């Protein structure tokens, strides 16, 4: 949190193909609404919907634009570099990252992977040292609201949890908490959603 200004800058990232009707979107928005209602400091919210404003797959041309000094870029390279630069700046200015994460075919949405590919930048959000990579976005918190049709938490089929922990730690975000809403395609959907909302209260207590 920005101690000097006592402002919590929150970035909400969603990627459900169902948009506002997606379970991960609904629950992540509810979490943020609760956070704003309970917080003792001002909450500034920035929302990014990766399904509505989808990012294309990363290309060599775009990566090459990053690696070209700003004063040597062509107009086309500047436009390509601006995509990642703006996303990185958005994340750098964030205190609390909230991710609404649906599960598609045992993995993360491809649009979210395209976002990761642009915010993981050598020399900007992480650096290589003799001891290995070191994340540069320290002091931030991340809350993952994971919505799944089946029951996967704690099983080998949950490919998301470890991946998200690893990739966020790679850029320096190691304070990561998960809220699971599972079995949403099963008869006990409402009961499972209630359980997820109760888990929200526990996470909120740790944030406030």
Topology of helices and strands:
Elements: E1 7-14, H1 23-38, E2 42-49, H2 60-67, H3 75-92, E3 96-102, H4 110-119, E4 126-129, E5 132-135, E6 141-147, H5 159-170, E7 175-181, H6 189-207
Parallel strand pairs: 1-2, 1-3, 3-6, 6-7
Antiparallel strand pairs: 4-5
Cofactor: FMN
Protein name: FMN dependent NADH:quinone oxidoreductase
Catalytic activity: N,N-dimethyl-1,4-phenylenediamine + anthranilate + 2 NAD(+) = 2-(4-dimethylaminophenyl)diazenylbenzoate + 2 NADH + 2 H(+); 2 a quinone + NADH + H(+) = 2 a 1,4-benzosemiquinone + NAD(+)
Q: Would you write up a description of this structure?
A:
Belongs to the azoreductase type 1 family. It is an enzyme of class 1 (oxidoreductase). InterPro entries: Flavodoxin_fold, Flavoprotein-like_sf, FMN-dep_NADH:Q_OxRdtase_AzoR1, NADH:quinone_OxRdtase_FMN_depd. Its cofactor is FMN. Keywords: Flavoprotein, FMN, NAD, Oxidoreductase. By secondary structure, this protein is an alpha/beta fold. It has one domain (7-207): Flavodoxin domain (Rossmann fold, 3-Layer(aba) Sandwich), CATH 3.40.50. The chain has six helices and seven strands, in the order βαβααβαβββαβα. It has helices at 23-38, 60-67, 75-92, 110-119, 159-170, 189-207; strands spanning 7-14, 42-49, 96-102, 126-129, 132-135, 141-147, 175-181. Strands 2-1-3-6-7 form a five-stranded parallel sheet, sandwiched between helices. It has a two-stranded antiparallel ribbon with strand order 4-5. Helix 1 (23-38) runs parallel beside helix 6 (189-207) and helix 2 packs across helix 3 (75-92). The chain starts with 6 loop residues before the first strand and ends with a helix. The model has no long low-confidence stretch (mean pLDDT 95).
């Amino acid at each position: 949190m920005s101690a000097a200004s006592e402002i919590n800058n929150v970035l909400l990232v969603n990627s459900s193909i169902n948009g506002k009707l997606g379970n991960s979107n609904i629950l992540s928005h509810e979490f943020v609404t609760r956070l704003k209602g309970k917080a003792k400091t001002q909450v500034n919210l920035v929302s990014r919907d990766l399904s509505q404003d989808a990012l294309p797959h990363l290309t060599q041309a775009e990566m090459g634009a990053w690696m070209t000094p700003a004063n040597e870029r062509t107009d086309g390279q500047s436009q390509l570099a601006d995509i990642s630069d703006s996303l990185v700046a958005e994340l750098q200015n964030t205190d609390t990252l909230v991710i609404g994460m649906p599960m598609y075919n045992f993995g993360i949405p491809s649009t979210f992977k395209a976002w990761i590919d642009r915010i993981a930048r050598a020399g900007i959000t992480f650096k290589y040292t003799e001891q290995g990579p070191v994340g540069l976005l320290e002091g931030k918190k991340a809350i993952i609201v994971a919505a799944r049709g089946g029951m996967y938490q704690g099983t080998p089929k949950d490919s998301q949890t470890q991946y998200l922990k690893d990739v966020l730690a790679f850029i320096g975000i190691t304070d990561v908490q998960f809220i699971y809403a599972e079995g949403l395609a099963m008869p006990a959907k409402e009961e499972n959603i209630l359980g997820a909302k109760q888990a929200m209260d526990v996470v909120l207590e740790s944030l406030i």
